Structure formats: structure tokens, C-alpha cells
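Hi R.,

Here's the chain you asked about this morning:
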Amino acid sequence: MNKVVLFLLAIVASFSLEAQIQTPAPSPASKLMQTVGLTEVIVDYSRPSMRGRTVFGDLVPYGKLWRTGANAFTKISFDTDVTIAGQEVKSGTYSIFSKPSEKNWEVFFYSDTQGGGTPREWDEAKVVAKATVPVYPIDMPVETFTITIDDVKSNGANLGIIWDNVYVAIPFEVPADKTVMSSIDKVLAGPSAGDYYAAAVYYSSEDKDINKAKEWMNKAMSMTEKPAFWQLRQQSLILAKAGDKKGAIAAAKKSLTGAEAAGNDDYVKMNKDSLKEWGAK
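And the predicted structure, written out as C-alpha cells:
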């Protein structure tokens, strides 16, 4: 092996060693997770630092679109629908962009979440919400860019952005009260037809109190405007098991009619077999 080849191999080896060295990221990645009411909020972003630089009006020019962080798009996710500055936003993940100025910021929630920096072509149709919020000066400069979720209440919070001597807050609301009230109404209204049906079928299949299963199934059917043929089939089996052959035959005949209309041959045969077994005429 000649000297030239050995020299090239040595260079390659040195580069390989260098590639294995790990150094801290200038703008490290961060993930913020916060429950607001009944909504899970997640923010993924990178955190640049001041490092002696003047941030707003210089590093981040006034009046120009900013990625609101560093590296990849800063993203926020909601697992329920929310309201941002009075605008309804569907559950999902959105990018956060902003236009800082000395006295207020425009903050944009954008449906395109792939990329870094700012979008090459800004598309207003992708703006799902926009907020104009005042700048609050803070006495102690904050070295590293920080996103927070502040003033957390059961029905909402503020998305806070802090860097240098600036703090801005974007209000958002979550549907906790609506969800809770709906749940309260449902529970206090008592079991649904589906609850009674499931309980009845379980009791019958597990050979528990068949009279209780019959009671629950009859309630389920009375609460169902148009019982399906497969529901009526289960009702007929429970009635027969409870010794109510007359009721079982009536339910099986209804199930047979529904199965024939639906073209379900399996249920047609099962009902005919049961009706024959129960001595139906």
C-alpha cells in the first residue's frame, strides 16, 4: 500500500472520529406538556439563547414573520377542539408563527407543520387562528427563549412566550365545562338503552340472574325506537331462558321478519330453528 493511500485512509479515519463527537445543540429541543381542563396540550420547540445579542428589533426584526423559536417549526397540539382568541380551532397540531413589534405581536396558528424557518410561500388559507396581543416588558432579561402555559384554569389558559425582556400571552379556551355538563346530564339521566342491552346479554351469557336480564332487556327494547333483528334475537333467547315462551316467540318472529328484510340468512335460520323448538305456530 503506497503512501498516498495510507494518507487518504488516515484522513478518512480522522473524519470518522470527528463525526462521533457529540456537542450540545445551540438551540436545544424542548417539549412542554400541560393538561388544561380536560385537554392535553403539547408544545414542541427549540430554544435559542441571547448570547449577548439584542433580540427584538435586531436578531428578530420588528414587523417580519418569525418562526417563534429555532430550527424546525414550533408546534402546538390539542387533543380536543379549542378556541384561540375567540376563534374555533379543531383538535390537531399546528405551527406557531409571529410578527413581533415593539408594542404588540401578531401570532399565527398555521396548519402546515412540516419544515424549518418560515414557509417559503405564506398561505393565508392555512391560518386557523390569529391573535394580536400586547407586549409586557419584564425587568429581568430571560437568556433562553421559553414557551409556557400560564394562568391555567379549568376552562382555559394563556400560551406564554418569553425571551429577553419581553412576555406575550395568547389566550385559549378549552371545552371542559361543555364536556363535564354533557357527562353529568348523561349520567343523571340514567342508563341508556345500550347499557341495559349490554348488561342483559352479559347476565344471560354468564348464567347470572336471568329474571334481571329479562327486565333489563325489556327496558332496552322499550327505549329503542326500531330494534334491530339481532337485538330482537337476543331478547327472544333471554325470554325463552326465563321461561316466557310466548314472549320469546313474539320477539323471534319480529327478528325473523327483520332478518329476511336484511337478507341475513344466518339469522333467518336461527330464528326459524328457535321458533320450531319453542312450538310456534
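The first helix runs from residue 3 to 19.

Let me know if you need anything else.
M.
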